[in-house]
Write a structure and sequence with these properties.
Elements: H1 9-20, H2 22-33, H3 42-56, E1 62-66, E2 71-74, E3 80-83, E4 88-93, E5 99-106, E6 120-121, E7 126-128, H4 132-150, E8 158-165, H5 176-183, E9 189-192, E10 202-206, E11 208-217, H6 233-245, E12 255-263, E13 273-282, H7 285-303, E14 309-318, H8 325-339, E15 347-350, H9 355-361, E16 366-367, E17 374-375, E18 383-385, H10 388-405, H11 410-415
Parallel strand pairs: 5-8, 5-9, 9-16, 10-15
Antiparallel strand pairs: 1-4, 2-3, 4-8, 6-7, 7-18, 11-13, 11-14, 12-13, 17-18
Helix pairs in contact: 1-4, 1-10, 2-4, 4-10, 5-9, 6-7
């Protein structure tokens, strides 16, 4: 790869086109954020998906709204039921171009319908609102960069497949096959538009992530007259929670977090049902296997309690995304490209996960925090730095230019994965 720290005349031109589109990138993000797209809000997802498809129709690409396949969800009664989320947005352009990219993002948020509905100007160049950073702003940056790139002279050099998913915040259980298929259709480089960190830093290595649901059944009884006849599923769940949390710090880089215990009711009834929902993170495949074995052991011990039965759901749905030679090569290229914009980018390893994990597992090196700068994501204090729309879209625009004109050798980077 040649010197990436300098801008060419076309680099200057693409940034000018992006700067001219600043208001459009910002305003459509605000409009999208007004529609609640909590991961379980099917109606909201269905409402926003065609609006996103219409926005992406500005590209020289074919667009499809693919119905998602149902996936298993354990309800509060401990029953496995199918849930069908919103459509998967698929965008395909120039599949015969010499450089192929897979791009991804999501339009669901962590906020259920009826929660965190206001968009507020914080008055210091920041806007507060649901999904502005994570990641409706990222989708707008992706689109803005591609619009500017396709208005330039290198358009025919790059083809891409984009997957915009409705279920990233709950694990991409419906959309993971689409991500894998897009990544394995000749893609050399992956670009994902999660927000960068509050400091402007980007994600380096990522841990793998698991979600588990454990359903425990006991035996109900009158808590006053016949307590001894009952078998408390909540008591068994409580012991299990203590044992799970005790696994923290047992193995380097592995963490567990119990998010909820559901079950029980009136205090005069021995509870016969409990659902324990928890997650785990692990830095590599061996650690993920250890974590899984420990969960299975604790579950067996819970079932061994007198009168307790149950079933276990879930596992590691996102494999770890460690740094390797290919990842280091793309990180270095992005950092050097950032210098051309006066940015001093660093890549920080994180326990967070995203669609970049899926794309890496499919064999494609990728950078996965190309979206807007913001902070306090997953809380009602989530904000986006408004000036970052142009800054981060320019970064993507320059990366596209370098991939197209050969300053970044996509084939060489991809070969490092093999």
């Amino acid at each position: 790869m040649t010197d990436l720290t300098q801008k060419t005349s076309e680099d200057e031109a693409i940034c000018e086109r992006i700067a001219d589109a600043e208001e459009r990138m910002q305003s459509r993000t605000l409009d999208w954020a007004k529609i609640n797209t909590g991961s379980w809000n099917r109606a909201g997802l269905d409402q926003l998906a065609p609006k996103l498809a219409d926005a992406f129709s500005a590209l020289d690409a074919s667009i499809k709204l693919d119905p998602s396949q149902p996936f298993e969800k354990v309800n509060a009664k401990g029953e496995a039921e199918d849930f069908e989320t919103g459509p998967i947005i698929r965008v395909t352009s120039r599949p015969e171009a010499p450089v192929q990219i897979v791009m991804s993002g999501h339009y669901d948020t962590v906020f259920p319908d009826g929660t965190f509905t206001e968009i507020t100007d914080l008055g210091d160049g920041r806007m507060n609102g649901p999904g502005l950073a994570d990641m409706k702003g990222g989708l707008s940056v992706m689109l803005g960069a591609l619009e500017a790139f396709e208005a330039g002279p290198f358009k025919e050099k790059i083809g891409y497949q984009i997957v915009v998913s409705p279920d990233e915040e709950i694990g991409n259980f419906a959309s993971s096959p689409a991500l894998k298929q897009a990544a394995q259709s000749g893609a050399m480089i992956g670009m994902t538009y999660e927000p960068c960190m509050e400091t402007g830093a980007m994600s380096g290595g990522r841990k793998g992530s698991a979600v588990f649901d454990v359903v425990l059944h006991g035996r109900s009884a009158h808590a006053g007259r016949a307590k001894e006849d009952g078998r408390s599923a909540l008591e068994a769940a409580a012991h299990m929670v203590v044992d799970l949390e005790a696994l923290n710090n047992r193995r380097e880089g592995v963490s567990f977090n119990v998010g909820a215990i559901e079950g029980g009711g009136a205090v005069n009834i021995v509870p016969d049902l409990a659902v324990v929902r928890f997650g785990a993170r692990a830095p590599d495949a061996d650690a993920a296997q250890w974590a899984t074995w420990e969960v299975e052991r604790i579950f067996r011990e819970a079932k061994a309690r007198d009168g307790i039965s149950g079933h276990l759901h879930g596992g590691f749905y996102r494999p770890p995304k460690p740094r390797n030679e290919a990842q280091q090569a793309i990180f270095s290229a992005v950092a050097d490209t950032g210098k051309a914009l006066g940015l001093d980018l660093e890549f920080v390893d994180t326990g967070g996960v995203c669609e970049g994990n899926n794309i890496f597992a499919a064999g494609v090196p990728n950078v996965d925090t190309l979206g807007v700068m913001g902070g306090r994501i997953h809380s009602n204090e989530e904000y986006v730095v408004m000036s970052s729309f142009v800054e981060r879209a320019c970064l993507s625009g320059l990366l596209l230019n370098r991939l197209a004109d050969g300053r970044m050798d996509a084939k060489k980077i991809k070969a490092l994965m093999e």
